Give the backbone structure.
Amino acid sequence: MESYNTIFLDNILKSAIFIHFIPFFSFHFLSLFFLPFSFKFCFFFCFFYYFREGKEKPKSFV
């Protein structure tokens, strides 16, 4: 169960990084427009996951 959560979190973070860098190298203008929203979503998801686990850090962040 815990391994599934960490794998899911890792996939979300990798997909977020992938979404960040693909538009960045393809067309720079859209990346400048979408980058802050992606970062806000990523930070929101990280904090939500952190507090959902009972303030216990996931293994992927250690």
Observations:
- The chain is about 80% helix and 0% strand.
